[in-house]
Fold Group 1 truncated hemoglobin.
Amino acid sequence: MERNLYERLGGEEAIAKVVDYFYNELVLKDASVNHFFKNTDMEKQLLHQTKFISYALGGSRTYEGKSMEKAHGGLNIQPSHFDTIAKHLHDALVHFGVAEGDITEALERVASLKEDIVHK
Ligand code: HEM
């Protein structure tokens, strides 16, 4: 049986490391997007994001948080902000040595949420 992307990346533990690096080293240090997170409890956010990204990558757990539209509505997120966040996710996966083909697959899944996340 072929393993899915989540399993190939190393499962929950590996994803948690990627998410931690993605947020703390990339997103929160980028002045073009970090203002969105200034009132967010980052500990809670890291947990949510880990679960969500795991789900997006095909992990077995189901995501039980708010819908993407509910979580991001009213934040006035522009397409450029979305692209910046996606780029940070890309760079975080590169940092952990994930293969280019797997990164492309992960970013395609995330991009499918763009419509729900950006401001309309
Ligand atoms: C790339 C795809 C994205 C995914 C998968 C994602 C996922 C999530 C999740 C799972 C939550 C938590 C929802 C909950 O509280 O139950 C959340 C909240 C949040 N997201 Fe995203 N997000 C994405 C893109 C973005 C972008 C582009 C921005 C802004 C530049 C952003 C800003 C935020 C903020 C500020 C919150 C917290 C809102 C609050 O404090 O209640 N997200 N996101």
